[in-house]
Design goal:
The chain is mainly alpha-helical. The protein is built from 14 helices and no strands. It comes from Methanospirillum stamsii. InterPro entries: ABC_BtuC-like, ABC_transptr_permease_BtuC.
Length: about 375
Amino acid sequence: MNSSYEPVSEAAKNHRQKRSEKLIKVQKEYRRLLGRKIAFLTGIVLLITFAVAYIITLGPLGMTIPQVYETLLARYLPGIFNMDEVFEQVVWNIRFPRIIGGIFAGFGFGICGCVMQAVLKNPLASPFTLGISSGAHFGVAIAAVFGVAIIGGEYLLIANAFLFAMLCSLFIVSLAALKGATSETLILAGIAVNYLFSSLSQLMAYFANDEQLRLMSLWGMGDLSAFSWSKFGLFVAIFVICTPILLSKARDLNLMTIGDDSALSLGVNANRVRMVTMMVSSVLVATIVCFTGTIGFIGLVAPHMARMLIGTDHRILIPASGILGACLLICADAVAMNIIGPTIIPTGIMTALLGVPFFLYLVLKGKRKEFWQ
């Protein structure tokens, strides 16, 4: 009996050893790919750092990249670096806040677009699929035409845009909660609300005078000029709260790609995750939109680019979408400011002009497999 037992035991031992070696090989391959992805993201961050300095040099002032870095560092290390007063005014008070605002806005659009595409399982989903921008635009139209706003002063348009964007989001989420938070319900509700607020904005435009119509049109084109250091407090606070929540849902989003029922068997309530992520994304998008106006395609294009370059693991895909969104938005804004200077093209127009070719490329590729697989 011992002689028959030994070969079986040896075979089992060899099987376990081969399985262990295969597992180690898979883990090494995963770490290698993860390292390449992290290195790629680090390269994009370094590219953004260089792009910030280069973009600041664009214009009639004639600055160099070392002068830009010296001006920025002199703000915190005045004993080591010198700061020219003219450069300080242009760099620190005019151009740098606009670029930092663009980085935050692009990052927010990117991660929200990625999350919405995942929970809605729709490659055309973006922060504007749920009509959030049209709700904000209607808030601006109400303030411009009738002067109806929750607060006055310089925050009149911003506060009204945020209020109506959030009312739009709450309506959609409440409707989905009553009907069931399926991806189809959210998409259909978003389309309905988008058309509703777009029609109401057009009605406001019909009653507006020339100055009011101009204000509504400019806000609807999208721009980064509203950013200044005095307005960053609430903006950054919302980011600090919302971004970690979305990143923490990456594992749940990975499981939801295999189907709601399969995710539930693994302990993930897909409807609850869908409601939480959509609500948090709506808050973040509403905060961005009330400062920037309607800027499209960043939330649509950035996640697709990240998915093509990084893969479908949302633990890496969500921050990658944000980083690429930030890079796309500040580069589009730089082109808009300098392509036919001194005229500044609204940022929203430029993002659409640059985003449409890539969008058509995605459509014409004609891949058969689903985008989240």
